[in-house]
Amino acid sequence: MSAPVPARSGSRAEAQRARILEAARRCFSERGFHGAGMAAIAETAGVSQGLIYRYFASKAEIIREITDSQREGRNEVLGRLADCGELVDLLLEAIDARRRGSGAPVEFDPALFLEVSAEATRDPDIAAMVSSQEQDMQADFAALVARTAAAKGRTLDPRALQQRTMLLRCLIDGVVVYAIRDPAADRAELRAALQDGLVALGL
Description:
Blueprint: H1 12-31, H2 38-45, H3 49-55, H4 59-80, H5 84-100, H6 110-120, H7 124-151, H8 158-181, H9 187-200
Helix pairs in contact: 1-2, 1-4, 1-6, 4-7, 5-9, 6-7, 7-8, 8-9
Protein name: HTH tetR-type domain-containing protein
Pfam family, one: TetR_N
Keywords: DNA-binding, Repressor, Transcription, Transcription regulation
């Protein structure tokens, strides 16, 4: 097996890597990490399996890259949001995209979130990746909570900020799981549940 090809900015190689990663993300989201083999990824990307191995040494390496991309994209998006209300809109759009089969944005892909979370309970390497991302994720959500509170004329002390951030994340994660388990769940009801949750948190 040949050594993976390093990405070159603006090159055809970089475009090929991105194409393979997007195909892998879609396969993992639809079939799970174990259900999506290299053959399925190659078919979705429209390339040979051999070409995939020119860029990635293994499926585990692809999973790591997708997980890193998900983290970076999520952090960037959270940094742009003005308040938690915009987060509700973004989450519902991701759920809608999943239902249409058009593919949710990688940073808020509900199925991929569940797959990574489940795999983290079985695979020590995935668990380590998730754990390493936790501090940054908590900080980004906390900053969003603080901005939302400030827009309402309130300043949260550190303990209140930590608690509200934790509860907000639990609310979001819960709605993601609910929407996956019940694809027919009414969108208006999902929005109302999220908005009521924000009100209960003072956000």
